[in-house]
Amino acid sequence: MTRIDWLTFLSDFNDVSLAISPLVRNKPPFELGMNPLIRRHPNSALAELAERVVSGQARWMGMPPATTHQIRAAEVRLNVDLPASYRSFLEVSNGFLLPGCSISALLSVELIRPFGEDHAGESAFWRDVQNDDTGELALYVQSRLEGTIQISGPPNESPEFVLLDPCSVRPCSGPRFLQLMHEGPTDDVDFEEIMTNHLEAAKYLLKLLTGCE
Q: Is 41 helix (H, G, I), strand (E, B) or coil?
């Protein structure tokens, strides 16, 4: 996949988000999805930005770039080498809010942590629904969701998360990404593909809200 120019990409996403935010505030049952993030990470800079989005004061949905020290500290804390595509994103914006989207944000690197720390119940559910009579479950991510790393914020209504699987590594690009949705985990996908899909979904939401569909 062609590498993304993250500054240009996030600027485009920001323009769509700025257009969506006032429309969502005025059109229930649509939700900006910022309040779960504010409650989960109440003392973080990302939550402060989310509060400004809710009040209509934010003009940029991103954060300052992550430093090399911040990225390395997360890698040491989590015992993982973050993929180059994700590092490149963090080096442009250390977290990014996605108001109105199915996920509330890409978290700042200091906030990412094992999925099981906040979602032990969901991890156990997906492990238990699998039929492991053959002993093959260990091959699948459903058996180890609690050890995947959650890089997205709390979901907006539907249970959707962006995760990084340290136990499944591509030889040239590092740990694989996946999305956990209502139907279950997806196959591994590129980080750029995940972000592009969310931008397209945001554009579609904007069309719905403006009656242009």
A: coil
**58 domain-assigned:** yes
- Six-digit token pair at 87? 């590092």
Nearest to 175 by CA among 147, 199, 196: 147
Q: How many CB atoms lie within 10 A of CB 208?
A: 13
SS3 118: helix
* Structural domain span for residue 152: 6-210
Condensed to tens digits (0 to 9), the pLDDT of residues 21-59 reads: 988 877 665 578 899 999 999 999 999 999 999 999 999
183 lies in some domain: yes
Whether 194 and 164 have beta carbons less than 8 Å apart is answered as no
The answer to whether residue 190 is domain-embedded is: yes
Element (DSSP H or E) covering residue 178: strand 174-181
Burial grade of 52 (CB within 10 A; 0-12, 13-18, 19 or more): middle
Full-model pTM: 0.88
What is the total count of domains within the chain? Answer: 1
CATH code assigned at 76: 3.40.1580.10
Within a domain: 1: no
